[in-house]
């Protein structure tokens, strides 16, 4: 029996990427993956989440759910007022509806294939 010629899944050490072109492409890939993971975490666990990233070109990207004020207040253990609670709940409901719609469209696409 022949051995596999691929490396397969293996742990890649975290080292600084020296080439700027590679940094840009890796950042864009990882950034979108992180946003997807954040969305999934929010969806499955009903949490408040804030992610702030700085790209190699010093642009700042943020993913906050449900609102930046709600995530910061939760982080600082401040009580939110009733108006903010309503905004947070509406944001959660809208995201849940959109995720349900996206999942439905993904299923239709899989069936069509």
From TrEMBL:
Its domain of life reads Eukaryota
PROSITE patterns linked to this entry? MADS_BOX_2
Question: What GO cellular component term, any one, is given?
Answer: nucleus
Q: Which GO terms describe its molecular function?
A: DNA-binding transcription factor activity, RNA polymerase II-specific; protein dimerization activity; RNA polymerase II cis-regulatory region sequence-specific DNA binding
- What keywords sit in the KW lines? DNA-binding, Nucleus, Transcription, Transcription regulation
**All residue ranges annotated as the MADS-box domain in the record:** 7-67
Q: Name one Pfam family in it.
A: SRF-TF
InterPro entries found in the cross-reference section: TF_MADSbox, TF_MADSbox_sf
Q: Where in the cell is it found?
A: Nucleus
The biological process GO terms on file are: regulation of transcription by RNA polymerase II
Q: What is this protein called?
A: MADS-box domain-containing protein
């Amino acid at each position: 029996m022949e051995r596999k010629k691929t490396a397969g899944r293996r742990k890649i050490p975290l080292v600084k990427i020296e080439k700027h072109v590679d940094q840009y492409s890796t950042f864009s890939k990882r950034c979108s993956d992180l946003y997807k993971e954040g969305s999934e975490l929010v969806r499955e666990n009903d949490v408040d989440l804030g992610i702030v990233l700085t790209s190699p070109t010093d642009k700042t990207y943020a993913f906050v759910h449900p609102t930046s004020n709600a995530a910061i207040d939760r982080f600082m253990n401040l009580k939110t007022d009733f108006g903010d609670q309503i905004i947070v709940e509406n944001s959660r409901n809208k995201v849940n509806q959109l995720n349900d719609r996206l999942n439905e469209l993904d299923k239709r696409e899989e069936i069509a294939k």
